[in-house]
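Researcher: We're teaching a course module on how sequence relates to structure. For the next exercise, students receive a sequence and then see the predicted structure as C-alpha cells, so they can try to spot secondary structure elements on their own. Here is the exercise chain.
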Amino acid sequence: MDMKLTDHTTTNIGSTRASTTAAGLSRSSLKRTCMRKSLIAVATMTVAGTAFAQSSVTIFGIIDARVAHGSGSVANKTQLASSGWNSSRLGFRGVEDLGGGMSASFWLETALNADDGTFGTSNTNNQSSGGSPSCTVTGPAGATCSVSMNGAQGLVFGRRSTVSLTGPWGELRLGRDFVPQFWNLSDFDPFGTTGNGTTQTLNSIITGTAQVRASNSIGYFLPKGALNGFYGQAMYYLGENSSNAGATKNDGNGWGVRLGFANGPFNVAVATSRTTSAAGSPQQSNIGGQWDAGVAKIMAHYAWDKGVVSSAVRSAKGWLVGSLVPVGGGDIRISYSRYAVDLAPAADRITKKWAVGYAYHLSKRTALYATYAHLSNGGGATQALNGATTAANRSSSGYDMGIRHSF
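Model: And here is the predicted structure for the students to work with:
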C-alpha cells in the first residue's frame, strides 16, 4: 500500500490538486496503517499480559539445621539434625486465574533433611504397609529380594501433593494433605510441632498413620474471609484396598472435620476424625484456642484419642498450655504438655514435658535459635529426646541450637 501511494505522488508532481489528493490519501492510509499496527500491538500485549497474569508458579522452602543433643539414663546422643525451629522443606506451587472468581492451583511439597540432603518419606495408603520399605524374597532362600519402597523413594512430595479448584463457594482439594484433626495440635502449640519442644499430644499420640497427613484424600475448605470469622475443613481419604481383601478391605479409609472461629485476638477450633482399621479404628479429637494479648500470645489445646496399643484398643487424653512472646528482636516460646494412655488395669502410661526456646531474627527470612526441653516418663513410658535412650519411668533432656533460613 505504501509503495502504491508513493508512486502516485511522484507521477503527479506539479499538479497541486493531484499532490493535495495524494497527500490526503497518504495521510489517511498512513493513519489507517498506524491504527492497525497499534491495534495488533495492543492485542498482542493484552494476550501476553493476560496469560502471565492468569498463571504463576512459585518455588519456596525452608532450610533449618541444628546441633541436637539428648540425654537419657541409658545413652546420650549428639547429632547434626534438621528442623529445629521450622520443618525444612522444598516446594512448588502455582495458580491459574480462571475468571469469575475461580482459580485452579497445585501444591507439591517435600520434607528435606538439611543435615544430609535426603528427602522425607510418605505413606501411600494410610496404613502401616504404605509407610516404609519392604522386601519380598520371590526366589530360593538367600536370593535377592524385590524391594517395594512404599513411599520411601528419593524425592517424595510427602508433606503435600494436591490440586485444587477454588471459588466463592470454597476450595475443593485432591491429593495428599494435612488432616483436619492435626491443625489444632500444631496451630496451638508455640513450637508448631517442630523440634524437641513439640507437644506430647503429638509425640505420644496413639492414633496411627493418619495423625498428621492422609493420602488419596478429597478435601473441602470453607471460603476464606467470607463467613464472618468462621473457617473449616472436611476430608475423606481412601486406603485403596481391593473389595475382596476381606476384613481389611476398608483399612485406611477415614474422615476428619474441623470448624473454627477467629475474630480479633481470639481463635478457637474443634476437630474430630476416624480412620478404619480391622485391628481397631483410631479416633482423634481435639479442641484448641489462642488469645493474642499484644505482649504475648497465650495458647492451649486438649486432645482425647483412641488407638491400638499392644493389640488392644485404648483411650488417651492430653493437653498443652503455652505462650509465644516477642522479645528483643526475636520470640520466646514456652510450653508444658502432658499425655496419658489408659492401660487399665495397669497404671496409665504418662509423658510430661516442659520446653523453652528463643529465636533471634537476623532478617525476615533468617533466624538463630535455641531450645531446651525436659521430659518425664511414668507408667512404664520410655520416651527420650533427640535420639537419646532412657529406661522406663526415667527422664530425658535435650537441646537444639541452629539456624533457619526461608526462601
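Model: If you want an answer key for the exercise: The mean pLDDT is 87. Residues 137 and 143 are 7 Å apart (CA to CA).
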